[in-house]
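Q: Please design a sequence for this.
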């Protein structure tokens, strides 16, 4: 058995390799001058664990090629997709749209035996795959990081409320949620709501930080209501453009993400949870 580290996930693949005591495969991944991708597995094994995001777009092609190369040498292929890109379009919101999350699943399952996703945008996304699949919820791992650090967990919108509740249970503190209205892809507004945060250290927790707009709105409310330290955390830190800078300038004391999308803010690893499932 060997782990194939896709370009999106060298750090997570290494952590997974340590957790499972399974070596990383020797793989060459190159880009041609026109942007096309080339992969070659310089190794022999009969069970491959491919770790690769379906984000950004070029990693999708890289994943398909790694799957194709792997199926030519290995009998078993497990695919770990730490951040399932295209997951947010998980149903038809307006007539004429594609269901991207389902289409991706149909393409990926062609050369795979088992699939693992980490906090897909909606739990039912795993059902788009007709192969064996499991969705990991990394909320508990994230919450462990905040034990003894915060007095309250805030969900920046109703969609994140269950996460906030779960995290609060692990931390042993209270939770609350805000009501968000999305104006455009990068603009949101949040209804003013009194929360019991004055003088308290707070964690704002969501599944994804994309442009940072959602978090910035929540930070403003917490600041206005006299919160102490403000921690901003998510599972998938897309952090588009200078989202991190904007969040820190808005008054966050720290940003914490997992290593599903690797950055300087990836302070919590999901490797152990993946390893527990794969072992
Ligand atoms: C939305 O449903 C997600 O849970 C996040 O709240 C959203 O993706 C965050 O986006 P942004 O950082 O651009 O406000």
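A: Design:
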């Amino acid at each position: 058995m060997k782990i194939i580290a896709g370009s999106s996930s060298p750090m997570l693949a290494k952590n997974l390799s340590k957790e499972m005591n399974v070596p990383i495969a020797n793989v060459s991944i190159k880009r041609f001058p026109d942007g096309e991708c080339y992969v070659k597995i310089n190794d022999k094994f009969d069970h491959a664990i491919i770790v690769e995001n379906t984000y950004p777009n070029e990693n999708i092609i890289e994943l398909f090629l790694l799957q194709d190369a792997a199926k030519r040498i290995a009998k078993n292929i497990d695919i770990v997709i730490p951040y399932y890109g295209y997951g947010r379009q998980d149903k038809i919101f307006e007539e004429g749209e594609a269901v991207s999350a389902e289409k991706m699943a149909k393409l990926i399952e062609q050369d795979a035996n088992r699939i693992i996703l980490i906090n897909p945008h909606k739990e039912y996304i795993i059902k788009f795959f007709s192969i064996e699949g499991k969705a990991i919820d990394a909320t508990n791992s994230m919450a462990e990081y905040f034990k003894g650090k915060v007095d309250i967990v805030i969900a920046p919108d109703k969609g994140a409320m269950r996460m906030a509740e779960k995290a609060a249970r692990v931390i042993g503190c209270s939770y609350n949620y805000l009501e968000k209205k999305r104006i455009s892809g990068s603009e949101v507004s949040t209804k003013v709501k009194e929360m019991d945060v004055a003088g308290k250290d707070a964690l704002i927790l969501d599944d994804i930080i994309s442009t940072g707009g959602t978090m910035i709105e929540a930070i403003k409310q917490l600041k206005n209501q006299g919160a102490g330290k403000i921690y901003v955390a998510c599972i998938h830190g897309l952090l588009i453009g200078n989202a991190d800078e904007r969040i820190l300038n808005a008054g966050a004391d720290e940003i914490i993400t997992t290593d599903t999308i690797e950055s300087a803010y990836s302070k919590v690893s999901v490797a152990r949870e993946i390893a527990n499932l794969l072992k």
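Q: Thanks. Anything notable?
A: The chain has two domains: 2-137+270-278, 140-259. Helices lie at 10-20, 57-71, 100-108, 139-145, 161-171, 213-224, 243-249, 271-278.
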